Amino acid sequence: ETLEPLLHVRGLQAWYGESHALHGVDFDVFPxxxxxxVGRNGVGKTTTLRAIMGILRKRTGTIRFRGADVTRxxxxxxxxxxxxxxxxxxxxxxxxxxxxxxxxxxxxAPGGMTVDEIYDLxxxxxxxxxSAGTQLSGGEQQMLAIARVLRSGVSxxxxxxxxxxxxxxxxxxxxxxxxILKGRGMTVLLVEQNVxxxxxxxxxxxxxxxxxxxxxxxxxxxxxxxxxxxxxxGV
Length: 235
Ligand code: ATP
Prior knowledge:
There is one protein chain. The chain has helices at residues 45-53, 75-78, 98-103, 115-121, 123-127, 138-151, 168-183, 195-201, 226-233; strands at 7-16, 19-29, 34-38, 59-65, 68-69, 83-86, 156-160, 187-191, 204-209, 212-218. Helices cover 32% and strands 26% of the residues. Strands 6-7-8-3-9-10 form a six-stranded mixed sheet, with helices on both faces. Strands 2-1-4-5 form a four-stranded antiparallel sheet, with helices on one face. Adenosine-5'-triphosphate binds at residues 16, 19, 21, 39, 41-47.
């Protein structure tokens, strides 16, 4: 493997105040891949995304993006490097319309999608373009949250539980969008409890437990990893 990882994480530790949440997380994401972090509640999946983004400022270890050390890049600068985050709580502006939400994010990196390109990808956002954030369904909010990040021109998308609480038909639509983005070369790091969904969109899995990555494997090995997954996920 001569390909350089797009995202390279080694020995990542992070704290919430005095509470030590990550104990040395190691993984790589290669260009164009969709990689999923799985593990039971509280093992540090969300915290890993927050530490990469600089939302958690107390962190040590190495985070390299496109070969550059971004371990100390603060939250307000990380998008300029090309990393975008869609948090579980989505972070859209509830009082603004869909279109205002889409017009707001500045294009911080080259390659940001235009509003028309967003509407091609998410036709239902175009139909709802005058609706306020508060009037959107959970699925529409999730799509708007993803769309906002795509506007900014990032090349790595961090998605935290994008399917949580959504109807199966919407989950399927989000899966289609992720496959379209993958076809365009987007790289995705996904946190997902829904392993069946993840299996449809991911190239590889990393299994987390107790603030560490235990193991990584390609999606093709999912069936033979069933026992390990069951034990670690407790499902
Ligand atoms: P979940 O699916 O529940 O979000 P997770 O694997 O994403 O699980 P994290 O949310 O990353 O887990 O939590 C990792 C650890 O950090 C847990 O022990 C959790 O209790 C703790 N933690 C998370 N958020 C905070 C916070 N804001 N303040 C203090 N501790 C936190």
